[in-house]
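Explain the record.
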Amino acid sequence: MFLFAAVSCPCHKHFVDIGMGRNIWTLSFNTASRNMPLVLLHGMGTGAALWALNFRTLSTDRPVHAVDILGFGRSSRTVFSSDPVLAEMEFVESIEAWRKKMKLEMFVLLGHCLGGFLATSYAIRFPDRVRHLILVDPWGFCDRVQIGAYEHRVPMPIWVKTLGLILEPFNPLAVLRLAGSWGEVTSFKFCYFV
């Protein structure tokens, strides 16, 4: 696999069965260490490969587990609820099911982009499991400029709204999935060389 050409430290690659026919692809490093583990959640459109250049440094003195969130990378494709609140809870519950299978009592949770949003949701729901929460460019948190007592919002042009409605049914990641094994190479290059 192309990803591991960049990973020069020992790695245990495995699927974690979280039930109901769903598996979460997991990369584990330095699992013999008894220090507090670090769990990495990737962002939208990526996978565990996002962290490839960081594994050696992050795992020098602690166990590190990088997962492909359900629906991404090599993890199971799952049909989530169309209700955003329920879909968020389904993601959070899948992380908790993964934690139980991995037998982790407490860990440091690091999330990037969408992974940051899910890490925050997980920490709110299961605060006794998260020692520290680290967010890297987290997605889903509003940036609002306060001007006096009013919020300043820029109106969205009608052409942008129309384009959004036209493109809504299309999955931008479908091209990578159709690319098969070339999708991994493209995804890796996109994450690290663009």
